[in-house]
Amino acid sequence: MYVADTIGAAFLKQVEATPHAILFEAGGGTGIGTGIRRLTYSDFKACIELTRLAFSGHGVAAGQVVGLANTNQIDTFAAIFALWALGVSPLVLDFRSPPSDILERATRARAAYIFSDFRKLTQHDGILEFPRVVPATDTSDGLVFLAEQGSTADFIMSSGTTGAPALHPVSHAELLSALDRMAVGGERGHWGNAVSCLNLSFPGTRYIWYRNAINGRKIITVPVFFSYAELDAALMHENAEEVTLPPVLIRGLVQHIKDQGLVGDGPRYDRLVKMQSIGGPLLGPALIEAKSILSDRLCVTYSSTQTGIISRLEGNEIDSHSNSVGMPLPHHHIRIVDDQGQSLPTREVGHIQTQVNENTARPGDRGYLDDDGYLYVVGRVQEYLCRNGVSFNAPDLENQIQVVTGAALCCVISSPGAVGDEDQIIAVIEASPSQLSDFKTRLRAHLSPLTRPDKIVLMQALPKTSGLKIARAHLHQLIVNAPEICHVI
Hints:
By secondary structure, the chain is of the alpha/beta class. It contains 14 helices and 26 strands. It folds into 2 domains: 7-379, Rossmann fold (3-Layer(aba) Sandwich), CATH 3.40.50.12780; 384-488, ANL, C-terminal domain (GMP Synthetase, Chain A, domain 3), CATH 3.30.300.30. The strands form 6 sheets. Strands 2-1-10-9-11-12-13-14-15 form a 9-stranded mixed β-sheet. Strands 16, 17, 18, 19 and 20 form a 5-stranded antiparallel β-sheet that branches. It has a 4-stranded parallel β-sheet with strand order 4-3-5-6. Mean pLDDT is 86; it is low at 160-164.
């Protein structure tokens, strides 16, 4: 499909074909950047050229890795292309993460610079202010994208469900191949002008933006700091065709529509060709209600970093198999295995294992296949937790909490939320209850909102088993019987 061998070159071909077509359009009642409502393909090409000059003026040079931790996602997107044009590998980071996490990931990727437009971050050593883009004073020497053999086009952060989170370098060829599967192969189903409210630090968001930018489709943007009213307005945009959201936002959108008295006779977003739920589970009555109120084109996808989308549930299947995550895609071979890797029969719970093109992975979930081949996810493998579509390793979080608080011992567990809500992450810490206020302050200051526990419990001594391990089952029961001991962070 793509004659060009880089995304940048494919983008330039699209600019040449449709220079005045709209690439970015504000969809949430606010403007792009400083109040601008639209950017054409030609406009965005000019942004890339000016951003490239700004980076070059800061000493950014070919062969380097450069970190980006911006609140303005369009600036980040322009910066990615600008860095590619300089022969630099971009590393997109989450501005919401603690500076220590940002610096650690940048160090692992051997980044020469980290830039951010977030003042809270630029106050820390090692994080520079995002370059100010100013009009060029001379004629541009043209925008060219060259892909060196083996050069890194992107870094994908694994979820950490099968080990410590890792950075995977991705080449231009691999990116183009993935986009080809998205756009042509049907791996992600129907697609079109995309409403986007998610941070580009999520690889899936970047892939959608790349795909649309090289195929002449719009990206209808919602600010990263948005209200449900803004998201609703964007989804009602006359050009909106698809959106990808985590379950927590889908449930919040349903509640907003109900609170505002906007529930109609049919789905509110009847122009969408796809509304996709990604990340944690959206199951049962919550899924059926979302399909009824939001869009009958709602689909649930189940995926892993290693192998991409594993299964999809959509259409009438939602009504008949609402607790499932759908049928595995044709090119995925799914097995349910025991702790020793031996296959289990249908309807028996075990580790979910998937194989694609001889690449075998375990997403970190337990589940089963029914007699018709539908996949069901029943929970995380014990030491891995998932909340709001973000997976993380419980022992890693326990260690972080101990470092931040100075506590001698910590145990992180999950507790089922209310019907339709995400599970809550609770950290049980061995410390004096009098330290509660200090611990809450430290955790808020030093842990990322993505992995920070929802609640903490402080106990003089954590219960132990006869083998001197923490009695997790006892902690679960204690919290069920005495919820008042859990304190919100």
